[in-house]
Amino acid sequence: MIITAALFAAGIVIAGAQTLRPEAFELLDLDYPGLENVRALHNEGEDLQAAYALLDYYRHRTGITTPEIRDISRIKITGQQQKWADDALQHTFFVHKGYQPSFNYGEDIDWRYWPIKDNELRWQLHRHKWFTPMGYAYRVSGDEKYAEEWARQYMDWIRKNPFVKIDKQEYELTSDSVLKADAENARFAWRPLEVSHRLQDQTFQFQLFIDSPAFTPEFLTEFIVNYYRHATHIINNYSKQGNHLLFEAQRMLYAGSFFPEFKEAGKWRKSGVDILNREIHIQVYDDGGQFELDPHYHLACIEIFMKSLLIADLNGFRNEFPEIYTDTVEDMIMFYLNICFPDYTNPCFSDAKITGRKEVLSHLKKWSALFPENKFIRYFATEGKEGTMPDWLSKGFLTSGFFVFRNGWGQDALQMTVKAGPKGEWHCQPDNGTFEMWYNGTNLFPDSGSYVYAGDKEVMEWRNWFRASAHHNTLTVNEKNFDNTESKTLLWQPEGDVQILVTENQSYKNLRHRRTIFFVDQKYFVIVDEATGSMEGWVNLHYQMPRGNVPNSREDMTFYTDFSNGSNFFLRCFGPEGMTMRKEKGWRSTDYMKKEQRMNVSFNIRKEDGTPARFITVIYPKKEAGKTPSLEAKFINGSFNEKGLKIQVRIDGKKKNLGYNL
Ligand code: MG
Question: What's the CA gap between 438 and 468, in Å, rounded?
Answer without folding.
Answer: 23
